[in-house]
Protein backbone atom coordinates (compact mmCIF):
# COMPACT_ATOMS: atom_id res chain seq x y z
CA UNK A 1 0.00 0.00 0.00
CA UNK A 2 1.44 3.36 -1.01
CA UNK A 3 1.57 6.46 1.19
CA UNK A 4 -1.52 8.09 -0.34
CA UNK A 5 -3.66 5.02 0.32
CA UNK A 6 -2.36 4.85 3.88
CA UNK A 7 -3.20 8.52 4.40
CA UNK A 8 -6.73 8.00 3.06
CA UNK A 9 -7.21 4.90 5.20
CA UNK A 10 -6.30 6.77 8.37
CA UNK A 11 -8.07 9.93 7.24
CA UNK A 12 -11.48 8.26 7.07
CA UNK A 13 -10.94 6.47 10.35
CA UNK A 14 -13.19 7.95 13.04
CA UNK A 15 -10.69 9.02 15.67
CA UNK A 16 -12.41 10.22 18.88
CA UNK A 17 -11.99 13.96 19.38
CA UNK A 18 -10.68 15.31 22.67
CA UNK A 19 -12.01 18.82 23.13
CA UNK A 20 -10.72 19.29 26.66
CA UNK A 21 -7.19 17.96 26.34
CA UNK A 22 -4.97 20.01 28.72
CA UNK A 23 -2.09 20.12 26.22
CA UNK A 24 -4.06 21.15 23.13
CA UNK A 25 -6.54 24.01 22.58
CA UNK A 26 -10.06 22.84 21.77
CA UNK A 27 -9.90 24.14 18.18
CA UNK A 28 -6.88 21.88 17.52
CA UNK A 29 -8.43 18.64 18.68
CA UNK A 30 -9.59 17.39 15.27
CA UNK A 31 -8.01 14.46 13.52
CA UNK A 32 -6.05 16.74 11.18
CA UNK A 33 -3.92 17.89 14.08
CA UNK A 34 -2.69 14.46 15.14
CA UNK A 35 -1.96 12.99 11.69
CA UNK A 36 1.19 14.07 9.87
CA UNK A 37 1.55 12.77 6.33
CA UNK A 38 4.75 13.28 4.36
CA UNK A 39 3.02 16.10 2.48
CA UNK A 40 2.31 17.96 5.74
CA UNK A 41 4.45 21.07 6.27
CA UNK A 42 5.16 19.99 9.88
CA UNK A 43 6.03 16.37 9.03
CA UNK A 44 9.83 16.82 8.95
CA UNK A 45 10.01 18.78 12.19
CA UNK A 46 7.80 16.29 14.05
CA UNK A 47 9.94 13.40 12.79
CA UNK A 48 13.23 15.12 13.70
CA UNK A 49 12.14 16.30 17.16
CA UNK A 50 12.84 12.93 18.78
CA UNK A 51 15.32 11.49 16.30
CA UNK A 52 18.31 11.23 18.63
CA UNK A 53 20.75 9.67 16.17
CA UNK A 54 21.62 11.85 13.16
CA UNK A 55 22.77 8.75 11.25
CA UNK A 56 19.10 7.91 10.75
CA UNK A 57 18.12 11.39 9.59
CA UNK A 58 19.43 11.20 6.04
CA UNK A 59 17.78 11.43 2.63
CA UNK A 60 18.33 7.69 2.10
CA UNK A 61 16.63 6.65 5.35
CA UNK A 62 13.16 5.19 4.80
CA UNK A 63 10.68 7.60 6.38
CA UNK A 64 7.36 6.68 8.02
CA UNK A 65 4.34 6.92 5.75
CA UNK A 66 2.48 8.66 8.54
CA UNK A 67 3.13 10.03 12.03
CA UNK A 68 0.30 9.89 14.58
CA UNK A 69 0.61 12.04 17.72
CA UNK A 70 -2.28 10.92 19.97
CA UNK A 71 -3.84 13.27 22.50
CA UNK A 72 -5.69 10.52 24.32
CA UNK A 73 -5.63 6.76 24.88
CA UNK A 74 -8.54 6.38 22.46
CA UNK A 75 -6.36 7.79 19.67
CA UNK A 76 -3.76 5.10 20.42
CA UNK A 77 -6.46 2.46 20.25
CA UNK A 78 -7.76 3.73 16.89
CA UNK A 79 -4.22 3.81 15.48
CA UNK A 80 -3.44 0.24 16.54
CA UNK A 81 -6.71 -1.14 15.18
CA UNK A 82 -6.44 0.83 11.94
CA UNK A 83 -2.82 -0.19 11.30
CA UNK A 84 -3.65 -3.82 11.98
CA UNK A 85 -6.50 -3.73 9.47
CA UNK A 86 -4.34 -2.39 6.60
CA UNK A 87 -1.93 -4.05 7.69
CA UNK A 88 1.13 -1.86 8.25
CA UNK A 89 3.97 -1.95 10.76
CA UNK A 90 3.78 0.42 13.76
CA UNK A 91 6.85 1.94 15.40
CA UNK A 92 6.15 3.32 18.89
CA UNK A 93 8.16 6.34 20.00
CA UNK A 94 8.11 8.41 23.17
CA UNK A 95 11.38 10.13 24.04
CA UNK A 96 13.24 8.47 21.18
CA UNK A 97 16.04 7.41 23.50
CA UNK A 98 17.01 4.32 21.53
CA UNK A 99 20.09 5.36 19.63
CA UNK A 100 19.72 2.45 17.21
CA UNK A 101 16.60 4.12 15.81
CA UNK A 102 14.34 1.17 16.59
CA UNK A 103 11.39 3.46 17.32
CA UNK A 104 11.54 5.48 14.09
CA UNK A 105 13.21 3.50 11.28
CA UNK A 106 12.35 0.32 9.41
CA UNK A 107 13.21 -1.53 6.22
CA UNK A 108 9.55 -1.81 5.22
CA UNK A 109 6.60 0.63 5.03
CA UNK A 110 5.59 1.78 8.51
CA UNK A 111 3.95 4.47 10.59
CA UNK A 112 5.20 6.10 13.80
CA UNK A 113 2.92 6.30 16.83
CA UNK A 114 4.58 9.22 18.62
CA UNK A 115 3.53 9.54 22.28
CA UNK A 116 5.38 12.75 23.13
CA UNK A 117 2.16 14.63 23.98
CA UNK A 118 1.13 12.00 26.55
CA UNK A 119 3.23 13.41 29.37
CA UNK A 120 0.89 13.95 32.32
CA UNK A 121 2.01 13.06 35.86
CA UNK A 122 -0.34 12.24 38.74
CA UNK A 123 1.13 11.95 42.24
CA UNK A 124 -0.61 10.20 45.15
CA UNK A 125 1.32 11.58 48.13
CA UNK A 126 -0.61 9.57 50.71
CA UNK A 127 0.29 6.22 49.13
CA UNK A 128 3.70 7.30 47.77
CA UNK A 129 2.95 6.39 44.16
CA UNK A 130 2.94 8.35 40.91
CA UNK A 131 1.35 7.64 37.54
CA UNK A 132 3.56 8.83 34.69
CA UNK A 133 2.53 8.71 31.05
CA UNK A 134 4.67 7.27 28.42
CA UNK A 135 10.87 4.75 35.88
CA UNK A 136 12.49 2.44 38.39
CA UNK A 137 10.18 1.06 41.07
CA UNK A 138 7.36 0.34 38.60
CA UNK A 139 4.47 -1.34 40.43
CA UNK A 140 1.81 -1.19 37.70
CA UNK A 141 1.27 -0.10 34.10
CA UNK A 142 -1.42 0.46 31.48
CA UNK A 143 -0.60 -1.10 28.14
CA UNK A 144 -2.54 -1.45 24.89
CA UNK A 145 -2.14 -4.74 23.06
CA UNK A 146 -2.37 -5.48 19.34
CA UNK A 147 -6.15 -5.94 19.59
CA UNK A 148 -6.69 -2.49 21.10
CA UNK A 149 -7.37 -3.77 24.61
CA UNK A 150 -6.15 -1.70 27.57
CA UNK A 151 -4.53 -3.92 30.19
CA UNK A 152 -3.23 -3.29 33.70
CA UNK A 153 -1.10 -5.42 36.02
CA UNK A 154 -3.97 -7.74 36.92
CA UNK A 155 -5.22 -8.30 33.37
CA UNK A 156 -1.82 -8.49 31.64
CA UNK A 157 -0.20 -10.79 34.19
CA UNK A 158 3.09 -10.58 36.07
CA UNK A 159 5.18 -11.93 33.18
CA UNK A 160 4.27 -9.11 30.79
CA UNK A 161 4.63 -6.49 33.52
CA UNK A 162 8.12 -7.86 34.26
CA UNK A 163 9.05 -7.58 30.58
CA UNK A 164 7.87 -4.00 30.03
CA UNK A 165 9.61 -2.82 33.20
CA UNK A 166 12.85 -3.43 31.34
CA UNK A 167 11.80 -1.66 28.15
CA UNK A 168 10.11 -3.65 25.43
CA UNK A 169 11.34 -1.83 22.34
CA UNK A 170 7.73 -1.34 21.28
CA UNK A 171 7.29 -5.06 20.58
CA UNK A 172 4.89 -6.02 23.39
CA UNK A 173 2.33 -3.24 23.05
CA UNK A 174 1.92 0.49 23.58
CA UNK A 175 2.70 1.48 27.17
CA UNK A 176 0.23 4.24 28.05
CA UNK A 177 1.43 4.90 31.59
CA UNK A 178 3.52 3.52 34.43
CA UNK A 179 2.69 3.58 38.14
CA UNK A 180 5.89 4.06 40.11
CA UNK A 181 6.64 3.62 43.79
CA UNK A 182 8.06 6.86 45.15
CA UNK A 183 10.94 7.20 47.59
CA UNK A 184 10.69 10.10 50.00
CA UNK A 185 13.65 12.47 50.08
CA UNK A 186 15.28 12.48 53.54
CA UNK A 187 15.71 15.68 55.50
CA UNK A 188 19.44 15.76 54.80
CA UNK A 189 20.77 15.46 51.25
CA UNK A 190 24.41 16.16 50.39
CA UNK A 191 25.23 17.12 46.79
CA UNK A 192 28.73 17.67 45.42
CA UNK A 193 30.43 18.66 42.17
CA UNK A 194 34.19 18.42 41.69
CA UNK A 195 36.02 19.44 38.50
CA UNK A 196 39.67 18.87 37.66
CA UNK A 197 41.65 19.59 34.48
CA UNK A 198 44.75 17.71 33.32
CA UNK A 199 46.86 20.50 34.81
CA UNK A 200 45.08 19.89 38.12
CA UNK A 201 46.05 16.19 38.12
CA UNK A 202 42.77 14.90 36.70
CA UNK A 203 44.60 11.78 35.51
CA UNK A 204 45.68 10.95 39.06
CA UNK A 205 42.08 11.39 40.19
CA UNK A 206 40.88 8.84 37.64
CA UNK A 207 43.63 6.39 38.65
CA UNK A 208 42.63 6.67 42.30
CA UNK A 209 38.99 6.18 41.38
CA UNK A 210 39.86 2.99 39.49
CA UNK A 211 41.60 1.66 42.58
CA UNK A 212 38.81 2.29 45.09
CA UNK A 213 35.69 1.84 42.94
CA UNK A 214 35.77 -2.00 42.73
CA UNK A 215 35.82 -2.25 46.53
CA UNK A 216 33.23 0.44 47.19
CA UNK A 217 29.70 -0.38 48.30
CA UNK A 218 28.46 2.62 46.32
CA UNK A 219 27.70 2.74 42.60
CA UNK A 220 29.77 5.17 40.53
CA UNK A 221 28.47 5.58 36.98
CA UNK A 222 30.94 7.06 34.50
CA UNK A 223 30.42 8.52 31.05
CA UNK A 224 32.34 10.51 28.46
CA UNK A 225 30.87 13.78 27.22
CA UNK A 226 31.86 15.74 24.14
CA UNK A 227 31.76 19.50 24.53
CA UNK A 228 32.81 22.47 22.41
CA UNK A 229 36.16 22.83 24.14
CA UNK A 230 39.72 21.62 23.69
CA UNK A 231 40.15 21.31 27.45
CA UNK A 232 40.09 17.81 28.93
CA UNK A 233 38.36 17.78 32.29
CA UNK A 234 37.12 15.23 34.83
CA UNK A 235 33.81 16.14 36.46
CA UNK A 236 32.50 14.30 39.50
CA UNK A 237 28.83 14.78 40.32
CA UNK A 238 27.11 13.04 43.19
CA UNK A 239 24.60 13.04 45.99
CA UNK A 240 24.39 11.37 49.37
CA UNK A 241 21.19 10.86 51.33
CA UNK A 242 22.56 9.95 54.76
CA UNK A 243 23.30 12.30 57.60
CA UNK A 244 25.81 14.96 56.61
CA UNK A 245 28.34 13.78 59.19
CA UNK A 246 28.42 10.21 57.81
CA UNK A 247 31.46 8.89 56.01
CA UNK A 248 31.06 8.71 52.25
UniProtKB/TrEMBL annotation:
Necessary cofactors: FAD
GO MF, one annotated term: flavin adenine dinucleotide binding
Residues annotated as domain FAD linked oxidase N-terminal: 64-134
Top-rank taxon: Eukaryota
Membrane-crossing segments per the record: none
Gene3D superfamilies for this protein: 3.30.465.10, 3.40.462.20, Uridine Diphospho-n-acetylenolpyruvylglucosamine Reductase, domain 2 (3.30.43.10)
Keywords recorded for this protein, A-Z: Disulfide bond, FAD, Flavoprotein, Glycoprotein, Signal
One record GO biological process: cannabinoid biosynthetic process
Family statement drawn from the similarity comment of this UniProt entry: Belongs to the oxygen-dependent FAD-linked oxidoreductase family.
Protein name: Berberine bridge enzyme-like 21
Species: Senna tora
Amino acid sequence: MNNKKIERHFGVRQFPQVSHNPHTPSDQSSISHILFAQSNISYSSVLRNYTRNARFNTSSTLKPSLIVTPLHESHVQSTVICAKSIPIQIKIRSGGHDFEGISYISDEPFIVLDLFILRSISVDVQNDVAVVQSVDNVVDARIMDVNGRILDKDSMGEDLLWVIRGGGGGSFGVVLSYTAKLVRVPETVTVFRVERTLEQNATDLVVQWQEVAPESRFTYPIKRMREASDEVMVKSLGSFTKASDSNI
